Amino acid sequence: MKKSFLSTIALAGAAALALTACSSGSDDGGDSSADPGSGGDGELITVGFAQTGAESGWRAANTESMETAFSEENGFELVFNAADNDPAAQISAVRGFINQGVDAIVIAPVVEDGWDDVLQEAADAGIPVILEDRTVSASDDLYATWVGLDFEEEGRMAGAWAAEQYGGEPTNMVVLEGTTGSAPANDRAAGFSAAIEGTQIETIASQTGDFTRDGGKSVMEGYIAQYGIEGIDLVFAHNDDMGLGAIEAIEAAGGVPGEDIKIITIDAVKDGMQALVDGKINYIVECNPLLGDLAAGLVKDVLAGNEVEKTVYVEDQAFDQAAAAEVIDSRAY
Length: 333
Ligand code: AHR
What we know:
This protein is an alpha/beta fold.
């Protein structure tokens, strides 16, 4: 996917403006420009949403955001499928949406590869596809638009903090990777590695925990069995849930997370932020899951024939302990 970071804020702003325009015309969240006409006057827009699964706290917040935005009162009938992180099951759910003849399909792709055929089938059937959250490696001619986060930048932000805090002395780091082949796992790894290049941080082990708390815990148990608490200085977990699993493993082995072993994660969901405030996680880069309104606005624009940007980025921030303590009570997820 081609990225233009410069255009990120402008695009997100434009989409937000489009959304404002959509919701200001009537109580049901749509004005005449947002009515795609595909369902006719007063008819609901049927949207098939192929979610990855329910692997993390982030995913739960994202699903809730999507279900709220694609509600009947906003003019949608949502057909929801969660694929339990199984790429084949997700592709067959999308095929089901095509056979059903939905008006539009929204996908949060489990993995980047393998989408060419089914996206072509959707295009042949005249059903627009809108990607949210994760990206695909297929040609961007095969989908209308994508809305999500800059995963590489998230990895870079996490790596820059690690480099600054720990890069000046020999540091043994273990990595808890997200789902193999997924855009966030690929891009966060790339961003982080680039940021710690030339420092004394050494990656001694890197394995997938599949973005789940149990996965993070059991991979961390393996690392501790191999290296001992004393042999590991730093954990980089590709999401909060795996970091929270690592905390359980460290505590069970008699270690003190955040002190004996430092932990950096990505997401900034409630449980992760609480662990940061408690000193068990040392730094978190946000990944905002509240993409529903932007995705719904894009679906309406695409169906109405309005021009949309190919990529719509939502900005992330990062938190150390003090910053987390300041905002934790006011966060929506
Ligand atoms: O694609 C976003 C990632 O997927 C989140 O970081 C992770 O928690 C989720 O499972």
